[in-house]
Amino acid sequence: QVQLVESGGGLVQAGGSLRLSCAASGRTFRYFAMGWFRQAPGKEREFAAAITWSGGGTLYEDSVKGRFTISRDTAKNTVYLQMNSLKPEDTAVYYCAAGTLYRLSEAVAAYDYWGQGTQVTVSS
């Protein structure tokens, strides 16, 4: 069992940066692939980024490539999403997710555990 708690969201101007954190509980955190998803009002939840259990592999959605960086600190049971050059269209609730994946996936259904989400608002 894994419990996830996101933090770090807030209001930022376009072009600014935020770093989201996801603290995980559970001794098996190190064996889970981790992902970040986001959901804007009236839209479906969509994939943003994912990282393998070892941290050696990452996957990004095309619109965030070069702007977002996912990383993990296994010793701290924490995964991060560094978001730079933020745009108004990045405004959404951001969710952390964990899953026992053999291959990183963009699919919501591939992840077993979810956090409660943190709001990110980018003003123009």
Task: Give a topology summary.
Elements: E1 3-7, E2 10-13, E3 18-25, E4 33-39, E5 46-51, E6 58-60, E7 68-73, E8 78-83, E9 92-99, E10 113-114, E11 118-123
Parallel strand pairs: 2-11
Antiparallel strand pairs: 1-3, 3-8, 4-5, 4-9, 5-6, 7-8, 9-10, 9-11
Q: What does the overall shape look like?
A: globular
Please summarize the sheet with the most strands. 7 strands, mixed
| Integer average pLDDT | 95
Low-confidence stretches: none
The fraction of residues assigned to DSSP E strands is: over 45%
Helix content: under 10%
Secondary structure category: mainly beta
Termini distance? 40 Å
- Topology pattern, helix = H, strand = E: EEEEEEEEEEE
How many helices? The count is: 0
Question: What is the subunit arrangement here?
Answer: single chain
The number of E-state strands comes to 11
Q: How large, in whole angstroms, is the Cα Rg? A: 13 Å
What does this structure look like?
- There is one protein chain.
- By secondary structure, the protein is mainly β.
- 0% of the residues lie in helices and 49% in strands.
- It has no helices and eleven strands.
- It has strands at 3-7, 10-13, 18-25, 33-39, 46-51, 58-60, 68-73, 78-83, 92-99, 113-114, 118-123.
- The strands form two sheets. Strands 2, 4, 5, 6, 9, 10 and 11 form a seven-stranded mixed sheet that branches. Strands 1-3-8-7 form a four-stranded antiparallel sheet, with no helix packed on it.
- It is globular.
- The relative contact order is 0.31.
